[in-house]
Amino acid sequence: MSRIGKAPITLPDGVQVKLQGSTVEVKGPKGSLGQTFHPEMTIEMQEGLLHVQCPTDSRQHRSLHGLTRALLNNMVVGVSAGFSKTLQIDGVGYRAEMDGSTLVLYVGYSHPVRFDPEGEILFAVENRGKTIVVSGIDKQLVGEYAARIRKMRPPEPYKGKGVRYDNEIIRRKAGKTGKV
Questions:
Q1: What whole-number distance in Å separates Cα of residue 23 and Cα of residue 10?
Q2: In the chain, where are the structural domains located?
Q3: How much is the pLDDT for 12?
């Protein structure tokens, strides 16, 4: 049995869960999310707690047990608190700005790179264009957008220029040495 899958999910105030077979819909103060899970996993609600039951102890069921519980927990946390990822921009002339709800990046190309938000995604630019915050209720979508933004100009190891995650550590290289 999965240790993650065994843990119950507590529902915060204002979060409602609707179960219909293997489809779960979660509504909260920030919005609503719905997802269909594997039909062999049983999801039950008892006294404000969500439990995921595993039918057998086979390898596939054990992995689905933990996955189902983690996805359900991400849905509950997303509609109640939300998710966000912070990116830092380093480099001379590199910056970000907002054009309405569209994020515009100036990262050394001959043209600005534009990102239009999709669904519940929100962008925010702070620190005079050097910090980008991607937020939303869907953890997968927030991570995907943050990865797309980082992919436009990943950090390079010599000067550290580029777009990096806030907690990312860039291993720096020494570069060439001159003749002795």
A1: 19
A2: 3-80, 83-165
A3: 93
Residue showing tokens 């010599």: 158
Q: At what angle do helices 139-152 and 59-80 cross, to 10 degrees?
A: 80
Q: What CATH code would you report for 3-80?
A: 3.90.930.12
Give the integer Cα–Cα distance in Å for 5 and 53. 8
Q: Mean pLDDT per 10-residue run, the chain (180 residues)?
A: 84 93 93 94 91 91 92 96 96 94 95 92 94 96 96 94 94 80
What are the pLDDT digits (tens) for 103-136? 999 999 999 999 999 888 999 999 999 999 999 9
Whether 3-80 shares its CATH topology with 83-165 is answered: yes
Domain 83-165 has CATH 3.40.50.300: no
Whole-structure pTM value: 0.88
H-only helix segments in 28-58: none
- 15-38 burial: b if 16+ Cβ within 10 Å, else e: bebeeeeeebebebebeebeeebe
46 C-beta neighbours (distance < 10 Å), count? 8
